[in-house]
């Protein structure tokens, strides 16, 4: 078996068993259907190449467009209330020896 025949068989085998969309149908079909499948595949590949070239060209142009607009307006400052959520007084806590003593005295009031 010649090298050209082996290469052709490998391409045919790849085309018939690949998971790429459309290629197996183009390889298995015959006549007009085969030509239409290859036409569709060619158009898809051409569209891909065109879009890839456009994206790379756009990237390589290095266009930098920056638009910054700052507006400083006065806003009303909300009223703030600071609440002490600690139920124990600092001076009372320092006088007590332990937490148990504090709990007993607070509970007995």
From TrEMBL:
Q: Which GO terms describe its molecular function?
A: ligand-gated sodium channel activity
Domain of life according to the entry: Eukaryota
How does this protein sit in the membrane? Answer: Multi-pass membrane protein
A Pfam family matched by this chain, by name? Answer: ASC
InterPro entries given in the database record: ENaC (IPR001873)
The residues that cross the membrane are: 35-53
Q: Which family does the record assign?
A: Belongs to the amiloride-sensitive sodium channel (TC 1.A.6) family.
One of the record's GO cellular component terms? plasma membrane
Does the keyword field hold Membrane? yes
Keywords of this protein's UniProt record, alphabetized?
Answer: Glycoprotein, Ion channel, Ion transport, Membrane, Sodium, Sodium channel, Sodium transport, Transmembrane, Transmembrane helix, Transport
Location relative to the cell:
Membrane
UniProt keyword Transmembrane helix, yes or no: yes
Q: What is this protein called?
A: Col_cuticle_N domain-containing protein
């Amino acid at each position: 078996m010649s090298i050209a025949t082996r290469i052709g068989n490998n391409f045919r085998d790849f085309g018939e068993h690949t998971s790429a969309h459309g290629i197996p149908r183009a390889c298995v079909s015959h006549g007009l259907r085969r030509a239409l499948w290859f036409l569709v595949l060619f158009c898809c590949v051409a569209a891909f190449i065109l879009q890839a070239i456009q994206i790379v060209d756009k990237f390589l142009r290095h266009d930098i467009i920056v638009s910054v607009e700052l507006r400083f307006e006065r806003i009303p400052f909300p009223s703030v209330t600071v609440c002490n959520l600690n139920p124990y007084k600092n001076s009372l806590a320092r006088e007590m020896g332990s937490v148990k003593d504090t709990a007993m005295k607070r509970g007995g009031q």
